[in-house]
Amino acid sequence: MTSGLLVISPHCDDAVFACGETIAACPGAVVATVFAGRPGTWVPHTEWDRLSGFKSHDDVMGARREEDRTALERLGAIPVWMNFLDAQYGDNYAVETIAEAMTEVVQRMRPRCVLFPLGLFHSDHALTHRAALTMVVTHNDVKWQVYEDALYRCIPGLVQRRVAELRNEGYALSRINRGATFDALAPKRSAVECYVSQIRALATDGRPGHVDAYAPERFWALASPRRRVHHVPR
Predict the structure, then answer these.
(1) What digits encode the pLDDT tens for the residues 110-156?
(2) Which of 70, 77, 104, 125 has the greatest number of C-beta atoms within 10 Å?
(3) pTM score, two decimals?
(4) CATH C-level class of 5-223
């Protein structure tokens, strides 16, 4: 299977919140969500799940996958769900374990471009980023870009610090100035609204809401020192 665009998402909602317009502009794009595994019935109900409107013994990830499926259908995209558990359920994974699973997806989909998160703030985002980063050198036929994680990119200084860290590690980054695609604005808004459970939790006291999901999408082309930076043709 060949897909022009593969977007790697830490959780169900992250890719659409950060890249929904870009996904809508690339019909047939694939969104691979890393932490979409279903916890066993013995795993305690979490505070986040309660705030999201779920009750004990609800199939939380089944419901979140359905939100994701509906959202991606509105963008003309295809979901792929990996079976790793969200950090809130207590599991820890090695970077190599996540990277191996990602590599299998990349090899199966054979994308021309892969977008993955800058890896801001949340441990699952950082792990997703680090795992994807291991493939940048080994997959020379792919154009690599990082997207600024919606919501977390609003934390002052966080994006700048992460970009500086990558450059210190020897990676080349250049900002991509990609304007909004008018035809993709409405589909993205419609897709974002599908994540009812997460929007509900984000609206609770002390949390940022989801308005940043409607802000302009921001990307960086990324390459290791052995590769020239590429931009995705539009």
Answers:
(1) 999 999 999 999 999 999 999 999 998 888 788 999 999 999 999 99
(2) 77
(3) 0.90
(4) alpha beta
